[in-house]
Give the backbone structure.
Amino acid sequence: MDKGNSAAMSSSSPVRAMVGASIVASGITKVYGHGTNAALHALGPMGLNVKPGEFVSLIGPSGCGKSTTLLLVSGLESVTEGKIEFDGQILRKPISDVGIVFQDHLLLDFRTALKNVMLQQEIRGLDAAELRARADMLFDRLGIAGSEGRYPRQLSGGMRQRVSIARALVHDPSMLLMDEPFGALDAITRTQSRHDLEMLWMETQKTVLFITHSIEEAVGLSDRVLVMSKSPGMIVEEIKIDLPRPRPAHLGEYPEFAQYAERIYQIFAKLGVYKF
Amino acid sequence: MSTGIRTSRALEPVLWFAGLLLIWQILVRAFEVPIFVLPAPTDFLADLIEERHRLALHGLITTKLILYGFIAGALPGVVLGYLIAKFRLAEQILYPIVVFIQGLPKITLAPLMLVWFGFADTPKVILTGLITFFPVLVDSVAGFKSIDPRQYYLSKSVGASWWQTFRLFELPSAAPQIFSGLRITIVIAVTVVIVVEWLNSQNGLGYLVLRAMDGTNTPFLFAILFVASLIGVVLSFGVAFLERLLLPWRRI
């Protein structure tokens, strides 16, 4: 059995509480289409290193390849060049020991909120009672208790996104990949969601790769922020965020926050992201 | 209060229908229309009651054929719709055949069907299936193709098998569109079975129609048509009911 297969096998094992997984990517690029004219160079070459239990944000202008990075790291799209290691094993197919919060939540509109979350249990064949208890806990923690029986169409944008976060966490994966999960939310809900996510993360110590275009979210949540350049995206700067946790709703309480934000802003300005 | 309103709403079409029959009755009598041209409602309603056992017996035979033919057309329609939507190769191989069959006036296949499958129910079911197949196929292809491709990111990341992907993601996603095809098709199936029964039958409503025509028994013909349309309405409601039952999220 080769390494890729055994990685897939172990990742399909039942729920296990453990520290997060690690990701090491080196020299990865993604080119869509073939030929010189049709090809779209979406990403890279770039490297990425996320340690077990670490909360890392990828921030960059829209269209820089942030979402592509997430798809590559999750194994849902294959790299054109380079390689990715998930927990030390080369990634060859979609990893399943992962929770993904997709942009636009991607809930199934024919399933109720609870059944959307329990999809993980149904497909992975996990213990129904145990997962149900976890789902209840997550609904409660994410402030969506009481909406279990509702269909996505009956929920607000914020609630839908919370349901999709619950779905990404219910099977207790060792890694969480989030693609602008709070992008569509209003400012108040976003701040609350950010706090709730931080608290959940502090309890579970999963590895999180968080994609955002919000400087506030990146600094407010991360251990490290990776700043990406415009398309084709590359990581141009790494910023360690050294702020105590849990971080407050109003980040302005920390003078350091303004400094971090200013640094990211300056990088964007240098890259020509802003044109004034 | 609200139940009173609901009852009166349900009653409204019935009253309209009764009113229409009354006007019909008055006009036929006033102008002394010959009964073999247009019978008065009382004429064919009398036949309906008098011949109720025969009508029920043959109506049930026809209904059975409608359901068999409907299933014989709808099931392959959904399956091939899935294959065509999902696999380019299936699309390339199957679509030309499907389009050719669709172009063919299928009722003209009846004699061939009789030669091949004899005089029992089989040729009727196959013919009905051939005709109901296409609308279901078209809607199934559209339904399966309209699935948000990102849904596959989700199904892959949770590690869904082929069967789980079909059962838990693709089929429910395509179901509303498939049902819109089924709703149209069930009504077509009623017509097809009766017409096919004209070609060769010793029973069924189509057979009764021929018998009525032979004797220029127009009131009986109307009674048969009444039963046929009743079957159509009940089956349509049946499909709609099934849709409500299976797709509860559509109601919200």
